[in-house]
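Students often ask why inverse folding is considered easier than folding. One informal answer: many sequences map to the same fold, so there is more than one right answer. In these notes we will look at a single instance of the problem. The structure comes first.
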């Protein structure tokens, strides 16, 4: 992977860095000369699974002191976290990580790349609870005032040997589409280092064809999110803020950099 032109990075905190995508992101960042830092509740296990050179910060997302220590001195944050499917911890983890990081950053303006999922704008299905909480995390980040990119992967583990091309889409219109984990990690790292990715929400899939070599051009070809809008460009409209759970409304009141509505 080549070094793109873009913002200067050094130390990057990865939330969810011991997962399958987070480990790949850490490896890519090391290859490019950056310093990944991973927040984990099990430092010994993390050191066994992560590449040499990754900083390990001990702590949990539920511990504000640990999260503040983890973000201290970082130049960017990557969020590849997620609760195990069926655990019921989606509010605490998939959503909760976003306000936890925003609280810890305390308006310190560093880029944030959030990995979400396709299907977050769907109104039904067996994964509805999980996807609703992921969407709430997206929306909070969009109005936080921080530079951000939101990456929504397709279904992990898909893609054949011919699927060498990263395919970026928008609007959350693809109900099923395969994506290779390597493509997700590469897109996240490129989003972090590419100026044209800032303020955008994209879905990522793996497609037939040669490898994508012009990520800046690919991001530039997408539509940026509307400033101050809760939803991504081309997304179906989401629920009104005043209909959200009180926890979400409180986070919006605390972190939104512009007034959303007098009713929340």
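Output (designed amino acids):
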């Amino acid at each position: 992977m080549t070094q793109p032109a873009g913002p200067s990075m050094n130390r990057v905190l990865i939330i969810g860095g011991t997962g399958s995508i987070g480990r790949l992101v850490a490896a890519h960042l090391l290859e490019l000369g950056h310093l990944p830092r991973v927040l984990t509740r099990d430092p010994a296990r993390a050191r066994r699974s992560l590449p040499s050179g990754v900083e390990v910060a001990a702590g949990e997302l539920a511990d504000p002191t640990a999260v503040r220590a983890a973000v201290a001195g970082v130049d960017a944050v990557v969020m590849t976290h997620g609760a195990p499917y069926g655990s019921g911890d989606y509010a605490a983890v998939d959503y909760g990580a976003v306000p936890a990081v925003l609280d810890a950053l305390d308006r310190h303006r560093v880029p944030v790349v959030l990995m979400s999922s396709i299907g977050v704008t769907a109104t039904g299905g067996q994964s509805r609870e999980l996807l609703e909480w992921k969407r709430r995390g997206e929306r909070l980040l969009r109005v936080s005032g921080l530079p951000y990119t939101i990456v929504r992967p397709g279904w992990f583990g898909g893609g054949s040997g011919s699927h060498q091309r990263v395919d970026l889409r928008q609007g959350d219109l693809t109900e099923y589409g395969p994506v290779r984990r390597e493509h997700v990690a590469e897109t996240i790292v490129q989003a972090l280092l590419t100026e044209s990715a800032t303020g955008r929400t994209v879905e990522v899939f793996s497609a037939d064809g040669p490898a994508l070599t012009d990520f800046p051009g690919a991001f530039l070809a997408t539509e940026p999110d509307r400033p101050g809008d809760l939803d991504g460009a081309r997304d179906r409209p989401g629920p009104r803020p005043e209909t959200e759970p009180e926890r979400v409304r409180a986070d919006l009141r605390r972190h939104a950099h512009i007034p959303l509505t007098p009713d929340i």
